[in-house]
Write a structure and sequence with these properties.
Elements (H helix, E strand, L loop, with lengths): L2 H7 L3 E6 L3 H11 L4 E6 L2 H10 L4 E4 L8 H11 L4 E6 L4 H9 L5 E4 L4 H19 L4 H11 L8 E7 L2 H8 L1 H18 L4 E7 L2 E6 L4 H15 L2 E4 L2 E4 L2 E7 L7 H14 L7 E2 L2 H15 L1 H6 L3 E10 L5 E12 L3 E3 L1 H11 L2 H22 L5 E5 L2 H4 L4 H11 L7 E6 H6 L1 H14 L2 E7 L6 H4 L6 E4 L1 H4 L6 H17 L2 E5 L4 H9 L4 E3 L9 H9 L8
Parallel strand pairs: 1-2, 1-3, 3-4, 4-5, 11-12, 14-16, 16-17, 17-18, 18-19, 19-20, 20-21
Antiparallel strand pairs: 6-8, 6-11, 7-8, 9-10, 13-14, 13-21, 14-15
Length: 555
């Protein structure tokens, strides 16, 4: 290849800088302009996600605290959808603990503190760019093909795959540096090789992740080998005079009937090992786990399509006033009838969309359609006093959530007190101070506020009593079997009494048995929600329930 052709083919690598403060973004861009790279910028994580989808990014430098979608969610997205990208977090000293956790999870490879040192920043970025160029620098197309052929694994040639993961590789990198971590990997590779007597291939798939491919091995032999490898590797090694403990996760997959792509197999097994990292047993990637991994990928990829094609639906679960038997409120619940998967449980798609940032679009859809339905139901029956809508912690982190809710109240001519926003106890515990301030802003707006799933987490009632709460919802875990547990009855009874003194209404959710209902009625619990009266039903069915008031309890 001549010089002119080389210059024509050469493309500088791209660095993506993300911060919600435009001044920070511009300052970083100036710092990096002397380096041989393209610098693209984004002032929101959502825009950064679009850039990651559209073009290859060598290095992502992101802030931690950002509205709507924060830096952690962006890093999770990058880890899943752009695994080749190196990730740095740039934030204040107060985020050091978060940075350590992200390093441990393998979501970032470096933490850069604000204010940054210019020379250190340029050195770190140059190192990443040089490493990326070295990894991709091959002189001819034929050499590239030869290199790929040498690295390619044909799964049909092997009976088993064992994946060995150094679970604390990020801690080791942070404490000892890349050079010592690389020497440790070489030592572990040598130990694994010496333990396997049959013909095999051993590869470093990713940092701290080894793939061991066995030509002949039964499931029993593979399990035994996994146990032996973990026993030999999970210990303290001395590397250049440094004592380093290795926390080992290990899993396997029989390949005799495998039809998976190699990368999907590695990622699925690695995720399984991470999920089981607290256990001492060997992880086994079976067909059901692989199917679940593929299902999750499909769900994440098709959320936008589901919203466009009106696959998402609202359901309404009535809340029955204990004293009268009338429906005076209802909770709006989200349902997804996927075009090929059927009904997808909210517990499944909500968790996934919180990870990749799509919960913001879903949340706005629910608020918009929930407020519209609330307005129509208010006109349908004057016996309804409120409609409850769930709102996630991620939505509450949006800088325009107050403005959005205010606009929807005006758009649908709703008195604010007719809307009850439900926030989970867990979300409140994880974002206490921030949410406390926001709850007061919502209270000033006039909407009602409810704490959902109380009893499922660890938030104390004394803390909740300081918040502008109108409704406390007792979780099913407190209600189930309460009629058989005297101590729990005492606790719930005293909780209801305390709430009444504070002017907080109590809703018991997940009530399924007559004995549970009788206990709650004797304690003067304000409202009952659960299958004993009705599951969540479509709008038309809910209106029929309203017509048949007072509610007749199912037997």
């Amino acid at each position: 290849m001549n010089c002119a052709q080389h210059e024509q083919d050469y493309q500088p690598l791209t660095v993506l800088v993300v911060d919600d403060e435009k001044s920070i973004v511009n300052a970083l861009k100036r710092e990096l302009r002397t380096l041989d790279c393209n610098v693209v910028t984004a002032t929101s994580a959502r825009k950064a996600m679009s850039i990651l989808r559209a073009q290859p990014i060598a290095l992502l430098i992101t802030d931690h605290n950002m509205p709507e979608v924060n830096g952690v969610d962006l890093l999770r997205f990058a880890h899943q959808y752009s695994p080749q990208t190196k990730n740095y977090m740039l934030s204040g000293e107060g985020d050091l603990q978060a940075a350590v956790e992200l390093l441990n999870q393998g979501l970032i490879s470096k933490y850069l503190a604000k204010p940054w040192d210019r020379a250190s920043l340029q050195h770190e970025v140059s190192s990443v760019l040089n490493a990326c160029r070295a990894a991709s620098e091959v002189s001819t197309p034929s050499a590239i093909a030869a290199q790929k052929a040498n690295q390619q694994i044909h799964l049909r040639d092997y009976q088993s795959l064992i994946l060995i993961r150094l679970l604390n590789v990020s801690d080791i990198l942070l404490s000892h540096g890349e050079q010592l971590a690389a020497e440790l990997e070489t030592l572990l590779e040598s130990r694994i090789d010496s333990l396997v007597t049959q013909h095999h291939v051993l590869r470093l798939e990713q940092s701290g992740l080894f793939g061991l491919y066995l030509e002949k091995a039964t499931v029993e032999q593979t399990q035994s080998m996994c146990a032996q490898i973990r026993q030999q590797l999970q210990r303290t090694f001395s590397v250049n005079g440094n004592a380093i403990f290795c926390h080992i996760g290990i899993g396997f997959r029989a390949l005799h009937d495998n039809k998976l792509d190699h990368d999907i197999l590695i990622n699925s097994l690695a995720d399984t090992i991470n999920r089981d990292s607290h256990r001492i047993s060997v992880s086994h990637l079976d067909n059901s786990t692989i199917s679940q991994y593929q299902r999750q990928q499909q769900i994440s990829a098709e959320v936008e399509q589901g919203l466009r094609n009106k696959e998402f639906k609202l359901a309404f679960q009535p809340k029955i006033t204990t004293a009268s038997g009338f429906i005076q409120s209802a909770e709006v619940l989200l349902r997804w009838q996927h075009h090929s998967l059927g009904w997808v449980p909210p517990s499944e798609f909500i968790r996934l969309t919180e990870l990749d940032g799509q919960i913001q679009a879903i949340g706005e859809w629910v608020l918009d359609n929930g407020f519209k339905a609330a307005s129509e139901l208010r006109r349908f029956s004057n016996e309804l006093t409120s409609i409850a809508i769930n709102i996630s912690a991620k939505q509450l982190q949006s800088s325009h959530i107050i403005e959005f809710i205010s606009e929807k109240l005006k758009q649908y001519y709703l008195p604010p007190s007719f809307i009850e926003l439900e926030i989970t106890e867990t979300a409140l515990a994880e974002n206490g101070q921030y949410l406390e301030e926001l709850l007061w802003q919502l209270k000033l707006l006039g909407v009602k506020l409810a704490i959902d799933d109380f009893g499922a987490g660890f938030t104390s009632f004394s803390y909740l009593s300081k918040l502008p709460i109108d409704v406390l919802k007792l979780d099913r875990c407190l209600i189930a079997g309460m009629h058989k547990d005297r101590q729990r009855q005492e606790f719930i009874g005293s909780l209801i009494v305390s709430c009444k003194k504070l002017g907080i209404k109590v809703v018991a959710e997940g009530v399924e048995e007559q004995a549970e209902l009788a206990c709650l009625a004797s304690m003067r619990c304000d409202t009952i929600q659960g299958f004993i009266y009705s599951p969540a039903v479509p709008r038309q069915e809910f209106e029929k329930l309203m017509i048949r008031q007072p509610f007749v309890m199912k037997h």
